[in-house]
Amino acid sequence: MNGPLQEIMDRQGGIFARHQALNAGCSEREFAWLTRERGGPWTRIRYGVYTERASWESKPSEARAAMLDRAALLVCDEGTVLSHSSAARLLGLPLYSADDGLAHVTRLRFHDRHLTRTRAGIKHHCGRLDDSEITWVDDLPVTTAERTVLDVASEFGYASGLVIADAALHRHVTRDQLTSALTRYPYDVHVRLRATVVSDADGRAETPIESLGRALLKDMGIEDVRPQHEVVLGDGTKVFVDLYSARLHHCFECDGRLKYRTQVNLRGDEVDADQIVWDEKMREDALRGAGFGVSRIVWKDTMPDAFSRASARLWREIRLQDAARMRSGAPRSA
Fold it and tell me: Distance between CA 333 and CA 292 in Å, rounded?
């Protein structure tokens, strides 16, 4: 790798365009040899864009997607901005059910006959995009968090929109900013969907499964759900439950498998999986002992085709635990 081309790669996150390699002193013959299909040290990751093969093959899928997003800008017209799921990745916002294998960009042009088109792995969106809706991350132009939330909801639907909206409120934006972004486009074809996402968004959710669990409970008709609700146990200990319905006096814990792997606690000490499972059991027993019902929502419960099964199980648990509490005379502590 010659010096000028290495500088280009360092500046562009490890990628370079064919013309950049040639301008940096690489001959046509040398370029053809370096990018040969079998064993060449350089590999093409997108039409006209390359990187080092060994580095590319060692990267996880998330890192590859981010490089492909960056590569998209290298082959697009000036005035193109990363948007939708590509912007979310760069902003560090979580994506759910939004992996379409494409880089998404918004092009600041209005005269193109095809307003939205997909070509060579890039989905080009055309439309209005104010300067205030563009920010820069790692020297790349991207849509702001609030605009990205609306775009993801429009492109991928309610569940995807709710996950990213909750995360944006938790980390990046205020509700006023999100509402302002919504009211900027009152005639958008997806305005009702966007409005529902913004209305339902809650920055207290800490993980995507909490957002999806809240959506599941809403579909079940449980609409008084409080995320990250503080509960005081009988010994005065304060704990937070993922979701809580005051009407049902029932806690819903949203569990992904990562929760039960070895972790590092707030003091920096390693806690093994067995201890985590035991602590969680003791916590659940303490909640029930204090008069609360407890149910668990896992990833498979949030899948669209799982609603009947998941809702039936949760309602059954709610009824059984409420009946048991009534028989025992346990108090309904707040």
Answer: 8
Give the model confidence (pLDDT) of 198-251 as tens digits: 999 999 999 999 999 999 999 999 999 999 999 888 778 888 999 999 999 999
3-class DSSP state of 240? strand
Task: In whole angstroms, give the CA distance from residue 278 to residue 284.
Answer: 10
- 3-state SS class at 126: strand
Dump strand ranges (E) for the chain.
Answer: 16-17, 42-46, 49-52, 80-82, 103-107, 116-119, 122-126, 134-137, 140-143, 225-232, 238-245, 250-255, 263-264, 270-271, 293-298
d(CA 4, CA 6): 5
Hey, what amino acid is at 37?
A: E
Find, among 149, 187, 150, 141, the residue nearest to 167 by Cα: 149
Calculate mean pLDDT across residues 155-159: 96
- What is the C-alpha to C-alpha distance for residues 9 and 253, in angstroms, rounded to an integer? 45
pTM of the model: 0.86
Q: Tokens representing 129?
A: 């995009």
Sign of the Cα pseudo-torsion (120, 123, 128, 133, in order)? negative
Quote the CA–CA distance of 317 and 273 in Å, as a whole number: 26
CA distances from 312 to 7, 297, 309 (A): 59, 12, 5
Q: Is 258 left (phi over 0), alpha (psi -120 to 50) or beta?
A: alpha
Sheet holding 42-46, edge to edge: 16-17, 49-52, 42-46
Reported residue count of the chain is 334
